[in-house]
Structure formats: structure tokens, C-alpha cells
Amino acid sequence: MTDSPSLAARIPELANCRLLCIGDLMLDRFVYGEVSRISPEAPIPVFQISRETTMLGGAGNVVRNATALGAAVCFVAVVGDDPVGRELTAMVGAQERVEPYLLVERGRPSTVKTRYIANAQQLLRADSETVRAINDDTAGTVIRVTADAIAGCDVVVVSDYAKGVLPDAVVEAVIGAARAADKPVVVDPKGTDFARYRGASVITPNWRELAEVTGMPANDDGEVAAAAKALIERCGFDAVVVTRSQAGLSLVTRDGAAEHLPARAHEVFDVSGAGDTVIATFALAVGRGIPAGEAARLANHAAGIVVGKVGTAVVYGDDLLRTIHAGEWSAAEAKVVSFGAALDRIEQWRGTGKRIAFTNGCFDLLHPGHVSLLQQAKAAGDRLVVGLNSDASVARVKGDDRPIQPEGARALVLASLTSVDLVVVFEEDTPMALIEAIRPEVLVKGADYRLEEVVGADFVKDYGGKVLLAEITEGYSTTGTIRKMAR
Asked: In 189-300, where do the E strands start and end?
């Protein structure tokens, strides 16, 4: 089935959903570096570390994906009374649109997964974790907090990573409370006993889990459909969404209908967290009353995007629009992204060793001077990000008679240049917030500025970045052009 023209119109609806997520929270740590030699001590590669990043993993990655799509999230989880638990608490607290209920259980170690990555490929994963069930007191609190929160949410996600936060009593109570409140429940399962999730609306195993739980083969469309139907009959689910790696995604419903969606990924870099992206996207859609078939197609598009990124990445509404409109949108339109999507793309580029150059401006009437500046900026790095003043920002900076062209037109013209890799519109008078978030290796402005006049110059130099004053092409300026037009 091809995507309907209305599928893209569903994307803004996801941001209106309020999701309740309960599950196993963990810290995902990524260590990036290079391997260029074998150790003299043993026949193993020597990994030279260049940088490290951390992000929310497990159920936390479901939360990240939901908020990246604009949704509000009530998040219930358990952490240990340890440095990792405190780091996780701070990270969740820093997330926008998240109402956290993180319970601390003494004596319980928090979970950390550390991945070592070179040349955009994982070399090794090291886990520090416990699978011990939370104690009865903690479980009772989790049940009470979740039951109180259900009424204010549209959909419930149970994100089970088998780390002990979801013992049978908690799962049964959460599903029971949600169904009593007439709220759909979407479960990302673990283990071999899916009957413990009885009463859930939708369950999202991968094809290997489906085969193991049912004892039936799940290698092709027919086998997946048969196994999913058997699971529905056995456990009473309304539907099963099966993630099938390079084969795509299948949706099988209680009435026996089966829809098999081909994989959308053009190139697979990393499947870490792809299941979290699927369940978050699907659940938000279902929570807004979007039919399961359309919800599955949105989730399939999202999965195709996220596996093309490195690490436990997230998908933004911009990403979904681009992939749904693939073949309809121009390459230039695909370069104009939101703030969050830009940061995500930049992180992916850095994961492959790319250096980021940044410049900014109003770019109201693009002229050869602008083109020269942008070419010099691109030459200073591997990827060029351009911060573009919004219409309101231009009016404040340049006067009420500006801009001549609206921000959408200005952004598209910029993005059509081969020297420009990304365009981000900002609302503030200066790009300082963008510069602080991006932390470019090179900050570029025209030589008509003095170094001390360049916004962000001191900040960039303080962390070792470079500030470049590009040569000016004489005889061109937007203001001059406007004056000539007015004669």
C-alpha cells in the first residue's frame, strides 16, 4: 500500500498527544574513536578514544522519541541510589515536555550500556546492570503513581527491557488501570511469556521474539501473519506490530487482517533503539485516534530514518515529513530543519568525524557577496550550517520594512546552494543560543566585522574552536540593492 496524501498531515497531530511511559530506564554511553593498529599485548585492536556522549536509553529513549515528535510525556521509572542514577535523574529533568516520576531504590545499581564506535560502526558493547525485580514497596509506589497519572494521558506505553522494573504485579496493575480508563496500552515486550501482558491493546515484538514465543516460524509474510494471529488468540491482544529488520514491519489485527510494510531505510548504520522509535511513533498515533494502519506506516517511516543514524537516535517531525515526501520534496527543502533536528543531524555528522562550520545572517536578497561568504565558510569545515534570522528577528534588527522576502523563501534559496548543508531559522536577535548548542569547530563571519564584534567568537575560542573572518566581495550589499530598486 502506498502512503496516502493525508499521511504527512497526521504528523502534527502526534505533538498533541500526552503519553504515559513506564519501564526500564538506562544510561546509554557512546565512546567514539579510531582503530589504526593491533595491540602488541594481544591480538586485539587498540581503540583510541576521541570523545564520549551520554543519552537516555531503554524506556528513556521512548521518551526522547516521543518528545522529539512534540508530545508531552509522563514518565515513571526506577533508578538506583548511585552516580548513574543521579545522572539519569538530571538528564530526565532537563527534558522538555516531560513530567518525571523517578523513584530511587537504595542498593539497586542503575543500568549503563557503553558502546564503542569507530567509523560509524559499533565495535563492542559493555553492560553494567541488574535484572533483579524492584522490591515490593517500590512496586507498590510505581503502581499508585501510574494509576494516578493514567487519567491525564491519551495512551500508555509499557517499555520492558527485563531489568526488573516491570514484575508481573506491576504489569498487570498498569494494564488493568489503563483498560479500566479506556486508554490504549502499547507494550514493547521481553522474555518468553507474553501472556503476562494479557489485556494490552498492541504488542510490538521483533520477528525473532515472535518466533520464540509462539514456537512458530516467522521468516516471511505468511509465517509472520500466522504467528501473530496465534499470539493474538492466545493472549487477547487487539493487534501485533512485528518489527522485521530489513524486511520492514508487519501489522496483524484481531480480525485477521495483515499488512506488511517494506523497510524504508536506504542505508543501515545502527539499529540501536529502533524498536523504541517504532513504539513511540505508533503509540502517539494511536493515542490521537489515528487508525492502526496509518500509525504503522508512520512508525515504519520512523524506523527507516533512525537506523540510518548512529547511536540511540530519535526522529523529529521534520525527519518524517522528508521521508514521506521523498521524491516530492527537493533536496533544498530537505536541508531546512528545526533546531532539534539540526542538533541531531550535527551529532550524526560528528560521529563520522565531520567538522562543523557555522555562519549566520538575514540573507534577505542573496547576492554574489553572500555566495562567496558561504563558499569560504564551507571550505573551512566539512559541513556548513547556516543560522537564518526569522522574519520577526529581521524586522527587529533591520527595521519594519524588512525582510523583503519571507523566511521560507530565504531559507529555500540558501538551501539550494551546494555549499550549504543545513539551514536553521532562529527567532532571537542573535544566533548565540544556536552557537552554544551547536559548538561549531569553525565560526565564520565577513571581514567587515571586527573579531570582537562577532557574536559567539569568545565562546567558540574558549573551547578551542576557530573564528574565520571571510574575505568580502566588494560592491555588493542587500541594503545597497534595495536602495537601487527604490530609485
From this structure: 202-203, 239-243, 249-253, 258-261
121 strand-pairing partners? 118
Which residues, in sequence order, are CB contacts of 480 under 8 Å at separation 6+? none
- Can you state the angle between helices 7-14 and 292-306, rounded to 10 degrees? 80
Angstrom distance (rounded) from CA 263 to CA 250: 10
* Widest Cα–Cα separation across the chain: 81
C-alpha cell at 118: 569507530
276 is catalytic: yes
Q: How far apart are CA 132 and CA 167, in angstroms?
A: 9
Give the list of residues 6+ apart from residue 184 with CB closer than 8 angstroms, or none: 155, 156, 178, 201, 202, 283, 286, 287
What domains, with CATH codes, occur in the chain? 7-25+55-329 (3.40.1190.20), 333-486 (3.40.50.620)
- Sort strands 258-261 and 239-243 into parallel, antiparallel or unpaired: unpaired
Mean pLDDT by 10 residues, the chain (487 residues): 68 95 96 92 92 92 94 97 96 94 95 90 91 96 96 97 96 97 97 95 96 95 96 96 89 94 61 79 96 94 74 76 68 83 86 90 90 94 96 92 90 93 94 95 92 93 94 68 54
DSSP letter for each residue of 199-224: T-SEE--BHHHHHHHHTS--SSHHHH
Whole-angstrom distance, CA of residue 408 vs CA of residue 390: 9
CA 74 distance to own-chain centroid: 18
b/e per residue 88-115 (b: at least 16 CB within 10 A): bbebbeebeebbbbebebeebbbbbbbb
Does this model's pTM top 0.85? My answer is: no
Catalytic residue from among 276, 318, 344, 421: 276
Neighbours of 183 (CB within 10 A): 17
Range 12-49 burial, b when 16+ CB lie within 10 A, else e:
ebbbebbbbbbbbbbbbbbbbbeeeeeeeeeeeeebee
Amino acid at 427: E
